[in-house]
Amino acid sequence: MPLSIRALFFAAYRDLLGTPRLDVDLPNGSTVADLVLELRGRGAPFDSLPTEPAVAVNRHYALPSDPLQSGDEVAFIPPVAGG
Amino acid sequence: MIHVAVTSDPIDTIAVLARVGADDHGAALLFLGVVRNHADGRSVSGMTYEAYEEMATPVLKEIASEVVKRCGTDRVTIVHRVGELAIGEVSVAIAVSSPHRAEAYEASRYVIEEIKKRLPIWKKEHYTDGTDKWVEGMKPAAPERAGSLAERPI
After folding, report:
1. Which residues between 15 and 44 in chain A have a beta carbon less than 8 angstroms from any beta carbon of chain B?
2. In whole angstroms, what is the distance from residue B56 CA to residue B108 CA?
């Protein structure tokens, strides 16, 4: 069984990709870095995502090496500009 | 007492300030972030703020809890606005109080600086010439824990 995650895109990333969310299937054992690779490998416009974007898994900032599990919500966080 | 919120309603700044304070607190401080009419030499007509709300609220709570630990105050209120804002509208209000002014200034400064570093909120500047642009912000730092064997937060 592959693992199914939901990718979320905000602000500039959403505008770039033209969608706020995507459901993605990945091989078991995949990490945050694997998800980024899979998406960037889809070609334009996905290849305009940074090679190492800030990512939050289930609403906590994550490392590229963090493993993913089925059902995870993985948010791609553009450089933040609150305040 | 900590109170944080992300809201699409205009911020009642006096109500934010009224949430802090105590009988043994001699200093209360209100910081307001306000939409200004220019950026990088360009004339700005307004701003759109967008949040990853399900994450922004917990991050604000985390920042407020850090202030309690670091700055010797337990009265912190942070309210951040989202949506379409006009020039002069308040985008963020931070109120803190403490026994003496030094801790209040430190706490207020800490909150706004941490918001800039890691709160998942973005803003798009609308210029008077009809164009707009997402503001280039800061990339949040990766969490400080070791590699893939680290325990995942639940």
Report:
1. 15, 31
2. 18
> What's the pLDDT tens digit per position in A5-59?
999 999 999 999 999 999 999 999 999 999 999 999 999 999 999 999 999 999 9
One-letter amino acid of B105: Y
- In CATH, what number is assigned to the domain containing residue B56? 3.90.1170.40
Question: For the whole model, what pTM was predicted?
Answer: 0.94
- Name the domain count of chain B: 1
What's the half-sphere exposure (Cβ side, CA atoms, 13 Å) at A7? 26
Nearest-neighbour CA in chain A from B38: distance (Å): 16
* CA nearest to B147 within chain A: A65
Interface contact A58-B153, CB threshold 8 A: yes
Question: What number is the ipTM of this complex?
Answer: 0.95
